[in-house]
Amino acid sequence: MRAIALRITFVMCVSLMAVPSLSAQSVRMSGEDEQIVAEINRMIKQGWEDNDVKPSARAADGEWLRRVTLDVHGHIPTSKEVAAFNADKDKAKRQHAILRLLDHPDYVKNWTTVWTNLMIGQGTPDRTSREGMQKYLRESLAKNKPWNEMVFDLVTAEGRFDENGAVNYLLSQMQDRDGGVQATAKTTRLFLGIQVQCTQCHNHPFNEWQHSQFWEFNSFLKEARRVDHRKLDPNSGRQVDDYSELLNGQFNGPVYFEKRNGVMQVAYPNYFGKQIGPDEKVNRRMVFGELLRADEERHVARAFVNRMWAHFFGYGFTRPVDDIGPHNPPSNPELLEFLTAKFAESNYNVKQLMAWIVSCESYQLESKFSNSNEIDNPAAGESPLFSRMYVKAMTAEQVYDSMLVATLPAQAGELNLEQAQADRQRWLQQFITTFGTDENDESTNFNGTIPQALMMMNGELINRALAENQATRLQQVIAAAKDPNDVVQELYQTVLSRSPTRAELNQLRPVLNRKATIREAYEDLYWALLNSNEFQLIY
Amino acid sequence: MFNPLLDRRHFMQHVAAGAALTVPTLGFLEHLSANVQQVKKAEKACIMVWLGGGAPTIDMWDLKPESKNGGEFKPIATKGDFQISDQLPKLAGVMDRMSVVRSMSTREADHARGRYYMHTAYVPNPTVEHPDFGSVVSYELGPKRSYLEIPSFISIGGGGGSAGFLGMSHAPFVVDGNGNIRNAEMRNMTADRLGQRLSMLGVIEDNFIRSNRGELPQAHKDIYVQAKNLLTSQQMAAFKTEQEDAKTREAYGNNNLGRGLLMARRLVETGVPFIEVNDGGWDLHNGVFNALKNNKLPPLDQAVAALMNDLTARGMLNNVVVLVMGEFGRTPRINQDVGRDHWASSWSLAIGGGGLKGGRAVGATDKDGVGIESQSYLPGDLWATVAQAMGIPLSTVHTSKRGRPMKIANGGTPIADLLS
């Protein structure tokens, strides 16, 4: 534990042009970081005072470790990890846990999943390599590449989808030959946190953005060109899809678009007032990437901060998180601007931002309402005050990965990352619907629906968990236990990261006393724990 | 009509399980079953055919042969007092029982926003999640049908809908176009064993609900009640269109849309009040006429006409509203790729059954299809019409989570020409 304090940290780099060389451990909590956290706390507390609420109590250690492990690694902690954390007497143990989690390989695994879904979707669009996208993200996240550098890569990438994985972001947005319309809508939402897709057809209904704005962004991306390659399949003798690549066409002209009254207009690249004229022969995508990387307007930083805050608290400073603008004022404007500035100053250090967020006081609180914060209920449409943790539903991936930790520990530690992710991807397909529109939108019918419940009650994951097989956690627990009480304790710790309450024990006793069918009783208890709201929610 | 043999088989299965029942009791049960079926036949329902992506209604319901926007299709006469596309000959034959509304004007021309607006009657708002109208029907009529063991809002081949502030138990239950429901068959599991598991689950869930962390823990429990019903209910047979005779299946068409509409009819017979059948692929930015002629219109023509005829033959048409629409129409102007783009300001839909007037063209667009020359209608007006047809009072008000009163169908006014 002590070793963490001695970790080498990188020197803050103020030049935006130079790429700093990073050590593996790129996150720390120095005195300066603690001041930043104190400032976040001060701003949030101001909101509590203004609204006359008192925060909820501090969450118990096990509950907190479960939450932060789910948020950072995408799965529950093992019962061993919970026990060690509970036993640790160090006052700074939460801080140590944060740094440990951020430098663990599961950080890379989880955020590769999160960003792959955000960039190309839960389903894989045609002519896109999910593996390529994941490979790029894994490598970038592993070295904690600054976020603005990643944005630069994704917007400017050229090459084959298996060799330069970053091209898959734009390839996934180029399903139709739509002149970069979908890529424009996605890029402005995901990286700039603004929704200009309405201005594709008309002036923005709620703010001063003009009809031309969408097409001015579009002019940066229009020259991107997808080239699909085919090959002969020796077995069938037919031509089949081979690789795709993303190239730059020669495009220097204006983009034409039609006004509602039928008049044609032209648009040239224009990034918040920085324009490229009709005569400039430049690689527009490269210029766009450089403007995003320099981020003088801080849109890139602000969009990222808002999304990260929403990841950890369930609610960002705006709803939706990718619609920031004068028409949609943020809940905590001062805090959003402060974090945006600090994140940019940190050279877009993603792990550092996460460390600040999970270190702040709000993140330490429990999700139960206190006696005086009933109004802090964003689920009811109220503005969030962050005086309690908000309960989040696990994503399908979080359920899958947590099921492995709780039921098949050997598989959870699967070393072949690509194989593990492919297995999970296959399983996920059952919950995904695509709408088949030009925006390639899709939806999951996973969250809190009947198909999810049926899968948990009766699907392949639960059936594997209950099988009489040496590799299952259930079998291990039963084999290691001295008496039924041990089994119950350990199953609770494994699934819910806590001990059973006295009341629960009393209610379960009659079943566990049936000696003849004790194995069945264990299976049924384990089934009930895994199917519970408490297991499937992050709280 | 209903298949009495099939029903008897289900009752026989029940009876075989409880061997104590005697022959006279069986006769009584059969009688009871017939009564329930009669009741269900009189129940109101709505089947919505969703043309995902936004259909070019100017090529379907409101042709402009004289205009440069007119496109390749010609109008033909129908059994109603108006014309539709020559690509929809079978539908032309049922237009005495359906009407088209030609003056929808709905402002939202983005897929997600349009889908939301047409499903809920409200434009998207960051602080409140509005329920799909199917969820409203589920909320209003579902609890009154105590015999119904399957969800009361079913979406075939769909996704993305939401019950919003009405709660997860009224969310659309999504099944694929073949009616397959994964993990819904319990193998090697007795009722006792399932009961034991559920009672243990109850202990843990109730404990967590009592800890006062907001609404998600309770919502989880409510969904499990529904899921348990699906594991044990005989009504699951409604999803199995293969139980229909070959002639009927052929009439609807051997494709996802045909099967979906046939399934919808079976679900209505089981008592489900709202079914959405999703047909995607209407986002025709290029090659619109070829796509319509070769792929999109023939199955739609066949399946919806078959549904109308089947409902008529079964004496159900007066109780079942049939609605055909998507998130918006498409631009009257034909673009450079021979396609049509998104267009929400003047478009059409088709609606019939449920006691609504057929044979009419309601509202009108101008000669090029770009403006409306009559009263225009909003999604709220449409859903108010459907609510009226289904016997849901227009004075119904729901309460958002924040305590804000929300009028049913966003306070819309029923479309008078469809009512009398």
Task: Report what the structure shows.
Chain A is mainly alpha-helical and 539 residues long. Chain A has helices spanning 31-51, 61-73, 79-87, 93-102, 105-120, 130-142, 147-156, 167-172, 181-192, 211-221, 284-294, 299-313, 333-345, 350-359, 361-364, 396-407, 409-412, 417-428, 450-458, 460-466, 473-480, 484-496, 502-512, 518-531, 533-536, and strands spanning 159-160, 224-233, 238-248, 255-258, 264-267, 270-271, 274-275, 392-393, 432-434, 442-444, 537-538. In chain A, the strands form 5 sheets. A 3-stranded antiparallel sheet of chain A has the order 1-3-2. A two-stranded antiparallel sheet of chain A has the order 4-5. In chain A, a hairpin with a 2-residue loop joins strand 6 (270-271) and strand 7. Chain A starts with 30 loop residues before the first helix and ends with a strand. Residues 1-24 of chain A have low confidence and may be disordered. Chain B has helices at residues 4-17, 23-41, 89-92, 111-120, 133-141, 191-210, 216-232, 246-252, 256-270, 288-313, 379-390, 416-419; strands spanning 45-51, 75-77, 83-85, 98-104, 153-156, 173-175, 274-279, 320-325, 329-330, 342-343, 347-353, 361-362, 397-399, 405-407. The longest helix of chain B is centred in the C-terminal third of the chain and has 26 residues, at 288-313. With 420 residues, chain B is of the alpha/beta class. Chain B is globular. The interface between A and B is large, with 66 and 63 residues.
